[in-house]
Structures are given as C-alpha cells and as structure tokens.
C-alpha cells in the first residue's frame, strides 16, 4: 500500500489520506487488480466505521482508496463508485 497524506497546513492535522493498493510481482511494484482493490476497500471500510471514518474508491479508474471522517465523507469528500 502506498500512502499519500494531506495534512492541514496550519495545524498539521490529517485532512485526507489517499491509499494506492500495490502488488509486488517479480521484484516490481504494480497496481493491484480491480477485484483485490474492491475487496480491500470493503474490508477497510467495514473496520473503519466504528472509528468514525469511511473508506471509498476514488473516481479515477479505481486505483486509489480515500479515507475521511465518516460524516464529511457522506457529504462531499469521497467520490463513491
């Protein structure tokens, strides 16, 4: 998993976390298959809900997962598929 964090400039608080699922094959990294990304998203979303966060697949071809505060995610942060 490749993690890309977006902190708030003034406080350093985490605003958004993008996660890019990767697979190692033959000593090279490549994007994970769509089926694996879907499964990973479902599992991370399920285990994150009790902590007030939501995980969704970005609208960029399904190669990134986004995590955000659950209430905010439902409004406008995550481009759910």
Series of secondary-structure elements, N-terminal to C-terminal: EEEEHEEH
What is the number of helices? Answer: 2
The shape, in one word, is globular
Beta-strand residue percentage: 35-45%
Mean pLDDT figure: 80
Which stretches of 5+ consecutive residues score pLDDT under 50? none
How many structural domains are formed by the residues? 1
Report the strand count.
6
Strand order of the largest sheet: 1-2-6-5
Structural class: alpha+beta
Question: Which features would summarize this protein structure in a list?
Answer:
81 residues, alpha+beta, two-stranded antiparallel ribbon, globular
Describe this structure in words.
This protein has one domain (2-77). Helix content is 28%, strand content 38%. The chain contains 2 helices and 6 strands, in the order ββββαββα. The strands form 2 sheets. The chain has a 4-stranded antiparallel β-sheet. The protein has a two-stranded antiparallel sheet with strand order 3-4. The longest helix has 15 residues, at 34-48.
Summarize the structure.
It is built from two helices and six strands; from the N terminus they run E-E-E-E-H-E-E-H. It is an alpha+beta fold and 81 residues long.
Topology (elements, then pairings):
Elements: E1 2-7, E2 14-20, E3 22-25, E4 28-31, H1 34-48, E5 53-57, E6 65-69, H2 70-77
């Amino acid at each position: 998993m490749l993690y890309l964090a977006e902190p708030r400039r003034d406080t350093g608080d985490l605003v958004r976390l993008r996660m890019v699922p990767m697979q190692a094959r033959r000593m090279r990294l490549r994007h994970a298959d769509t089926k694996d990304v879907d499964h990973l998203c479902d599992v991370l979303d399920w285990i994150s809900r009790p902590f007030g966060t939501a995980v969704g697949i970005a609208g960029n071809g399904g190669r990134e997962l986004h995590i955000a505060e659950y209430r905010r995610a439902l409004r406008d942060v995550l481009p759910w598929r």
